[in-house]
Amino acid sequence: MVKLRLKRCGRKQRAIYRIVAIDVRSRREGRDLRKVGFYDPIKNQTYLNVPVILYFLEKGAQPTGTVCDILRKAELFQERTSIRVN
């Protein structure tokens, strides 16, 4: 099963998170299938590769809670109402 979740990057006390499609059994810093965006909580910036995210969601990938909140803020779920979210 594939999940869309955050992967921590950046330096100490200055975290930046990549949004990645990754196998459920992999650890947080493990090898990802594809990078689909990033999130900077300090500057409150988000970059999303929307076509790739929609592709993974249509194939059955489940976003984690935090990623789901980020996608909702970006109004991604209003574009596609057929996608089921936890």
UniProtKB/TrEMBL annotation:
UniProt record, GO biological process: mitochondrial translation
Entry keyword Cell division: no
Ribosomal protein among keywords: yes
Superkingdom to which the source organism belongs: Eukaryota
Main location: plastid
A GO molecular-function annotation: structural constituent of ribosome
Subcellular localization: Plastid, Chloroplast
Keyword list, A-Z: Chloroplast, Plastid, Ribonucleoprotein, Ribosomal protein
InterPro entries (UniProt xref): Ribosomal_bS16, Ribosomal_bS16_CS, Ribosomal_bS16_dom_sf
GO CC annotations on file: chloroplast; mitochondrion; small ribosomal subunit
NCBIfam families linked to this entry: S16
Family per similarity comment: Belongs to the bacterial ribosomal protein bS16 family.
Protein name: 30S ribosomal protein S16, chloroplastic
Species for this entry: Sabal domingensis (Palmetto palm)
Lineage: Eukaryota, Viridiplantae, Streptophyta, Embryophyta, Tracheophyta
Gene label: rps16
